[in-house]
Amino acid sequence: MATKESKASKLISALKPGKAPASKPAKAKADHATPLLDARKAGQEATPAMLQKAAKDNLFLHFTRHSPYQNADMPIITKAEGHHFWDINGKKYFDGISSLFSVNAGHGRARLAEAAAKQMKQLDYFPIWSHAHKPAIELAERVLSYAPKNLSRVFFTTGGGEANETAWKIAKQYFKMNGKPLKHKVLTRAVAYHGTSHGALSLTGIPSMKKMFEPLVPSTFRVPNTNWYRAQDDFENEEAFAMWAANRVEEMILFEDPDTVAAFFIEPVQNSGGCFTSPKSYFKRVREICDKYDVLLVADETIDGFGRIGTMFASEKYELEPDMLVCAKGITSAYQPLGALMMTEKLFEPFKHGTNIFSHGYTFAGHPVACAVALENLDIFDEEDLVGNVARNEAAFKKTLEKLKDLPIVGDVRGAGYFYAIELVRDKKTRESFNDEESEKLLRQFLSHHMYDNGLYCRSDDRGDPVVQLAPPLTIGQKEFDELEQTLRHSLSLAGELFELM
Ligand SMILES: Cc1ncc(COP(=O)(O)O)c(C=O)c1O
Questions:
Q1: Which of 19, 226, 234, 348 could disulfide-link 278, Cβ–Cβ 3.0 to 4.6 Å?
Q2: What are the pLDDT digits (tens) for 419-466?
Q3: Is 428 helix (H, G, I), strand (E, B) or coil?
Q4: ∠ at Cα 75 (369, 418), nearest 5°?
Q5: Measured between alpha carbons, how far is 410 from 428 in angstroms, rounded to an integer?
Q6: Residue 252 confidence (pLDDT) above 50
Q7: Residues 6+ apart with CB under 8 A from 415
Q8: Ligand 1 in contact with 271 (CB < 6 A)?
Q9: What is the DSSP string of 173-222?
Q10: Burial class (CB in 10 A: 0-12, 13-18, 19+), 61
Q11: 321 Cβ below 6 A of ligand 1
Q12: What is the per-residue pLDDT across 12-29, written as a single tens digit (0 to 9) for each?
């Protein structure tokens, strides 16, 4: 064991990011040096060192601890093809989460670039404010053709968070215009992520992500998610647990007064916390409850949509008929920023009359170039039957990942389609998890670095219990599943040794 320990500790010290320097008064940058602009003007390529320095000097990365980059290099990505991308040093990586659960059709699709160029030449931009344009008109019809039959109207956004924000506002206004002005509250599920704007963050069920921005928008309430792995001691079977979880929605509506509750937001497969699935009976019961109390049901398919779960929308797989459906990411396979909110005609109906207006919109929402790219992307989906590829291979993907269950650190493998989480535990038998300090060591100091250094980009996350998540491009098959499994096995075995798990 001593040798193992020292091997693992050596790895940790090699991989550990530098300590954050003690806080000192910030110094303004002395000048606005522009080495990159100078190189550009001189017709020269910026060197990797120049890019590295300028990145550190000027960029503020999203959801990123910047302290490690005081002493270490920022990863700079330069190109991508299929399910791979390359960094500035020429190192190749397997894109195990489609970059951000987004590049569903895979990287490097020249025809999407051509569709963008063609659209830019035809109509570069026009807002969909009081006007329409062909790409938006065509795309609205196209996305509705894949959606549950009760949905018939599309409001475009530039991403998932904006679409959730929009859904809440639609719900509030709809009830105001229909004689139920008190209905404004929303229920969402514990640990679910719905975006970062004040409204979407208020919907989000992750306290640590919210605390720096409180007070947020009032009137959001959390109900339990369907984390079966953590509930199975208390229930006879998953159906019974799911029914219990669904009934908490009714309970919360009653606690808060049905006359004040407008909507319930739910991801059919919940990303945050690690790919929580639910049986169809859960969605059926939730639908019944929402109907009973006139509460709108919103499916947030920002990740689940566009084939990720093995059907075009996850709502189809789980026989869910939401009143609104949010989608983004895979709609363009991330080649352009775009989101969409689909809704029933009932919700749109009041806006057909008199002076009624929905005072809400975004400059770039439904951008013609993004819509043209989305249409071409969906052509690729159809021509290559990408959704069928997931449906045919999902059982094999699951089976391959489940091989990892022989490792002492792997407690659970769960998910659907090409969307899986591997939950890491201290003790398989008791399902004891890692505490915060251990989780920091496991995920941030060791695992994410080790997997990345071994050429695998995937998500290690502890917004719930520690998990590693996979959401590869929908193009891959058994050969790539095996490759993923092997790389994960290597990293997870060492992670187990780090904690002396047997
Ligand atoms: C379920 C869900 N909803 C909303 C969002 C926010 O989407 P965006 O970053 O496009 O605003 C995300 C982002 O990952 C998501 O996973």
A1: 226
A2: 999 999 999 999 999 999 999 999 999 999 999 999 999 999 898 999
A3: coil
A4: 60
A5: 7
A6: yes
A7: 269, 275, 277, 398, 421, 470
A8: yes
A9: HHHHHTT-TT--EEEEETT----SSHHHHHH---HHHHGGG-S--S-EEE
A10: exposed
A11: no
A12: 444 444 444 555 666 666
Q: Residue 327 Cα, ligand 1 centroid: separation in angstroms?
A: 9
CA of 169 to the centre of ligand 1 (A): 17
Report the pLDDT value the prediction gives residue 2, as an integer from 0 to 100: 38
Residues forming beta bridges with residue 419, ordered by sequence position: 416
- What contacts 253, CB < 8 A, 6 or more positions away? 187, 261, 289, 293, 295
CA distance 430 to 446: 24
Report whether residue 265 contacts ligand 1, using a CB cutoff of 6 Å: no
What is the Rg, in whole angstroms, of the alpha carbon atoms belonging to the chain? 24
In whole angstroms, give the CA distance from residue 342 to residue 163.
9
Rounded Cα–Cα distance for residues 298 and 234 (Å): 29
The answer to whether the CB of 381 is under 6 A from ligand 1 is no
Cα distance between residue 244 and residue 238, in whole Å:
10
Condensed to tens digits (0 to 9), the pLDDT of residues 130-143 reads 999 999 999 999 99
Please name which of 304, 472, 296, 501 lies closest in space to residue 393, comparing C-alpha atoms.
472
159 lines ligand 1 (CB under 6 A): yes
Question: Which atom of ligand 1 lies nearest, measured to the CA of 267?
Answer: 1
